[in-house]
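BUG: 3D viewer hangs when loading the predicted structure for this chain

Environment: internal workstation, default settings.
Expected: structure renders.
Actual: progress bar stalls at 90%.

Input used:
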Amino acid sequence: MLTSVATAYAECVWVLWVELSQVDSKSPAVWIIVSANPTQAKCDTALNKKIEDATQGQTNAKRNANIITEHSSGGLTTTWRYSASPTPWTRAAEGEVTMLGDLRV
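Structure tokens produced before the viewer hung:
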């Protein structure tokens, strides 16, 4: 049993997600795939770069760990919450992400 669990874990792709939500909006929060990565380390690197890029030069964006909050002049507050997770239903060894369409790692 332990061997099959270890094998399944080795075949995981790490997916970087972002949850986009807006306060004072009638729209529900949505989760969006940012990237798929073959290892947790590469996913963490992608997460840090994405947050760095998103906040660079933004005076009205605040960062708290993996969460960016931006207040617009119209009173709308937008929040991006980044999260990285392994996905056991993928096969990184084959270079495909079966549940995510044509996305390749």
